[in-house]
Amino acid sequence: xxxxxxxxxxxxxxxxxxxxxxxxxxxxxxxxxxxxxxxxxxxxxxxxxxxxxxxxxxxxxxxxxxxxxxxxxxxxxxxxxxxxxxxxxxxxxxxxxxxxxxxxxxxxxxxxxxxxxxxxxxxxxxxxxxxxxxxxxxxxxxxxxxxxxxxxxxxxxxxxxxxxxxxxxxxxxxxxxxxxxxxxxxxxxxxxxxxxxxxxxxxxxxxxxxxxxxxxxxxxxxxxxxxxxxxxxxxxxxxxxxxxxxxxxxxxxxxxxxxxxxxxxxxxxxxxxxxxxxxxxxxxxxxxxxxxxxxxxxxxxxxxxxxxxxxxxxxxxxxxxxxxxxxxxxxxxxxxxxxxxxxxxxxxxxxxxxxxxxxxxxxxxxxxxxxxxxxxxxxxxxxxxxxxxxxxxxxxxxxxxxxxxxxxxxxxxxxxxxxxxxxxxxxxxxxxxxxxxxxxxxxxxxxxxxxxxxxxxxxxxxxxxxxxxxxxxxxxxxxxxxxxxxxxxxxxxxxxxxxxxxxxxxxxxxxxxxxxxxxxxxxxxxx
Amino acid sequence: xxxxxxxxxxxxxxxxxxxxxxxxxxxxxxxxxxxxxxxxxxxxxxxxxxxxxxxxxxxxxxxxxxxxxxxxxxxxxxxxxxxxxxxxxxxxxxxxxxxxxxxxxxxxxxxxxxxxxxxxxxxxxxxxxxxxxxxxxxxxxxxxxxxxxxxxxxxxxxxxxxxxxxxxxxxxxxxxxxxxxxxxxxxxxxxxxxxxxxxxxxxxxxxxxxxxxxxxxxxxxxxxxxxxxxxxxxxxxxxxxxxxxxxxxxxxxxxxxxxxxxxxxxxxxxxxxxxxxxxxxxxxxxxxxxxxxxxxxxxxxxxxxxxxxxxxxxxxxxxxxxxxxxxxxxxxxxxxxxxxxxxxxxxxxxxxxxxxxxxxxxxxxxxxxxxxxxxxxxxxxxxxxxxxxxxxxxxxxxxxxxxxxxxxxxxxxxxxxxxxxxxxxxxxxxxxxxxxxxxxxxxxxxxxxxxxxxxxxxxxxxxxxxxxxxxxxxxxxxxxxxxxxxxxxxxxxxxxxxxxxxxxxxxxxxxxxxxxxxxxxxxxxxxxxxxxxxxxxxxxxxxxxxxxxxxxxxxxxxxxxxxxxxxxxxxxxxxxxxxxxxxxxxxxxxxxxxxxxxxxxxxxxxxxxxxxxxxxxxxxxxxxxxxxxxxxxxxxxxxxxxxxxxxxxxxxxxxxxxxxxxxxxxxxxxxxxxxxxxxxxxxxxxxxxxxxxxxxxxxxxxxxxxxxxxxxxxxxxxxxxxxxxxxxxxxxxxxxxxxxxxxxxxxxxxxxxxxxxxxxxxxxxxxxxxxxxxxxxxxxxxxxxxxxxxxxxxxxxxxxxxxxxxxxxxxxxxxxxxxxxxxxxxxxxxxx
Lengths: 527, 832
Description:
A: alpha+beta, 4-stranded antiparallel β-sheet, 13 helices, B: Methylamine Dehydrogenase, Chain H, 5-stranded antiparallel β-sheet, 5-stranded mixed β-sheet
């Protein structure tokens, strides 16, 4: 004797965004803290030493914030004009910043006034950074030059005049004290070695370069300019690896997460995109209120700091996992004795065992179905809670009744209240594509059965008119969609006719297909 | 059957066991049922087949316990004989030749050596008229007896055995046919007939379906087409009869049965619920629901302890007093059509086909036993006629047996088709298939073919399904898309189409590097890794019906047959037609263990078989008229032990066997002479114990027991002390009459000692004399001979000396002393 098989509730495909590990990780941030600055936030730099304060360059000031403070812990205001690119040295003791007035200033993080001023540039200095040797400063300016300075003597060591437009970004190598890379509005990236007089490598980005980023292994270089983010292989002499075009406005800033597995790019289109660095696919996306100029990621991804053109600094802190547990109070459970009653009884040798068959637990509607009470089964499936929270259960019961050939019996003989409840459910879920086939037959049967009583109840009539309107709307939508589909078909057919172009597309798509394979090889060689 | 050299076609397994009412033996240990041309004796506890009573040459149509001897059983058959068997030993006792086909058999205690049989009326052969005939069985010691003493009792009866019953130990006989009931009283030699109108007032059909008579009371219960049961009383008069109606069944009552004491009435029908009505308190009833399939027969054992129900899915259920199903004897389920075809599970080598509605059955060919049913649909089956329910229509195994794909469909009257594709993974722990993925509506129309990539070594296996909607889809196992999903699941990898044609068949090459899909007249060959269309092959006219790749050395060939009587063989290296021949092949299949291929050709009502290699022009084996009718499904099953046949014509059967199913649902196979001889030899070796079924466990244990028995014989154990007179007296006398325990103690202890033999016991005093060392020569000799036994014992224990040396008197004495001391533990050893 087989036991009763309960109604199967199908696992319907979930609609909407898919949940991946990345979405879980990047969604695990609290609501952002917003701080109003004095002007557009042009640069954010985290101190490499604990407690990882960060310097925010906005208008004529540089604010230093602590990891959880909402007020700046330190402010540098002695700028004559707009400050640019406030950056920490690797020991977190010194801070350098360029300025619109072409003077580069060096600050002690503890002090107030500038320790040194480096004068020599003729135009605004947008890039300033320390080299790994700790005693030199790299600067790059709108006068097309980049220079190296000696920190203690404030003397210019070298000047490179190779760019033919504003130099707006630059990075120094963390592994080699002599190596640095600059990107300019002349569309080029140049790699310099301070030991030689000329640049050692030149790459063409194709757009004015806005931002540069070196991978921790320094085998790969990422550049952002225009709408493109490009990855270059430095070990292969500056060969382009990938070109990403995911933003629809200029990309302004780049960052890498703590593990080096995800690349973040911020753009004027108000989005921050997160890429997987193995296949360079976008895995997550953040939206902000205004165009983004700067982006910073705290060590261990503890916080994401974004500076925008509307002079707002937005700080998102990571959620701690322990916190939500405190809110739910443990419910008082029955005592241990209750559960252990009779459980530790050891049967004696001569005891006769009476095995009690395990009772099958059935849902309410299944109990009714087991007894062939079809109307009652439908009633229990239409209970308020099931109807609202789990419409798939109700639909599954209706489907089961249809399979048993008793749906008509179950739907018939209902009073006004029951019928309006049923109609409410049908109307509410009719256009969910997962339920439409079942509910359409239900609605048909309902109309067949109750067509003689139409006009007797205002409530039912209202529901039916509502259903009719919904249906008309849906038909209209479907018509539109079909028209669009037809248009697309003609377009595709037209494009297929020109065989040459098709071949080109094929070729291009093949190229893209092959490109992502290369980072693997590079990784192997660099690690 | 047709003979061809030493290969012949034989029926294999799966005969019907629900054809007629089973019979339970008096001691409730055996259940006998008619099964094809034999009677099968099952153990009602272990469900194993203990004996198969073979001898009839036609379908067995009835089994009946001999009323005068409960260890014997009558069976009747359409071959015109009634045979008497001893079913405990499985021996044919006597054969009575009646001369007319027998359709059912009845007997009662009142009528000694008379059986009642139903035979067709001879005068009119066109109309199906049957009569009940009493046959006097002559009492002769001969094996073969002519029983020509026939006398007609009732004419115009139904051939259905459940429409005739004996009442009250054989006083009267009741028979129903259509709308008429006839009751015949033997003493009065008079019959009364009662008839009903065809329809009741509210449209129920009144046709009689079955009858049962109360064993003690004058009451007859009849079942009707509209689900009613009528209890007829006071039918000794024509006019004043009464009846009461019981109604629970919603469709025809197929079987009725009273319990031996007459306290309960059992009924069953399509609902697959066994209903137990209390006699005289009919509003009280018990139900045993969900027995699996429609009940066709209900029987009760003579002591009333066991009920058994036969079901339409070739199953007999044994029920203990209407509460618990204690055993299920299941035969191969052969429904109206085998939609899934025949498959072989690569793991268990069992034959797999669709069984009960919504299930796949796994049938062991070697043991001729149904292993289990796998529930595919997992929905409550509603036992109602005319209801469209989900059916399993396609199934496929991958090469390793790790994955099973099934397709179920439900065709509604008006709305569109409902389709589900399910993928099952084999779970090592539970040793069964577990549902992994359900794809609802995988295609828009019916699935025409489905196959797995056959490459055993590849890590990712691919499933391809072709459908009437003009597409074929490739499904692959992928990593979970959601992080909250547990394991990998299947998803669609590729959708292919070719000029809007309908794909009818698909096939993977042996190494899984090519996929061939037959789109009506065109065969397309695809690369399963890149899903590129590699080439198209076509040989118009005619739609491609079967496709298969060659195996092993012939893997470069692709064979296809079309509906215009052509078989084509393409060479895939040159992409050209290698050969083609005109043959109306209905089925083309390939043996995965050799290069051989088999083609079944249908020609005017019978089917021919050709076995060939694609590379050779001449067929290896061909047989005309393998069976009548079309062969609808066939499969090669791998053999467990390879045959070593040297003859050319039977070599193709060395590695695998060919099973095929005809349109009449007969499962047939080819067997060679060598194989049959082997089988015969092995069956002779097995001497069957009459009570215990032949199981591997029994063979293991029985052997051990035989050895044990042998040991006992060699040791010649003395009878246990229980049998001694003293102990018997001691135990049977009431305690208060017995003397004091201390007095009895020595006597009791002595009786426990094992004397050498019974003869020895008689002259106990001689023993005593020997102890006083006064012996005669003859007694000495006697002692010697007797002593040699425990000595052998000792030898057995130590495994020492080979022959018993002659002993001196002192040694003898020593030995005897030792023996007296140690005898108890030796017996203990023996007992253990």
